[in-house]
Task: structure prediction
Amino acid sequence: MAAEAGAKTQVTWLVGAGAIVVLLVAFPGLVKNLPSAALAAVVIAAALSLIEIAGVRGLFELRRSEFVLSIVCFLGVALAGVIPGIFIAVSVALLSFIQRAWRPYDAVLGQVDGLDGYHDVSRHPEARRIPGLVLFRWDAPLFFANAGIFQDHVKHAIRESPSPVRWVVVTAEPITDIDTTAADTIGELIENLSGEGIRLCFAEMKGPVKDQLKRYGLFEKIGPEYLFPTIESSVRRYVAETRAEWAEQDDARGAVVTRR
Result:
């Protein structure tokens, strides 16, 4: 009600709190005969300004999951009370976050003529892929709930490769954490791929995540020289070691040059 009346600063709430204290201490019986219906009307009038139909409609059109969350919060507050309702909404939001992290987006990358860097081949079917090299991006932290899915998707990317795979480079910039279960999975994946003659490498991994790999004993297992600062450096190292022929775009000239 104060905001609707034009209040702009925190002084408004201090004055309001002071007025309530004075009313309770000096005039405790002043409003005892005020009908409950009148008090309810004041509360309803104040609550009406909190209802944003346009905002809820926007959530429905832009992101259905957040629309459902808003409805859950509303129903929780209406049916169970303010504190339980907020607790229910926060719990549902956390479960939604875990669900997204459980099955995050991943992609195999290739180079698109005219565009710098490497891009999702599912969105750019024309992207060129380095023979024998899988650039695999995983867009979430690695933890117990998604470690097995990560391993399965890496193996699927290998099976779907148009040429026999010799290296897999995980572009790890989106990976902000690796727990112990995921570390065990990575160790198992390294051994399985090594038995097939495939090397597992990482590129763009953040320093704190590298520190985790050192604690888990994976840093040496992967090989420090196979933890690359950029995707481009991993590609250059792969081409140099395997002598694969690769028509790489020269970013400075926009041309395509063949490297061996």
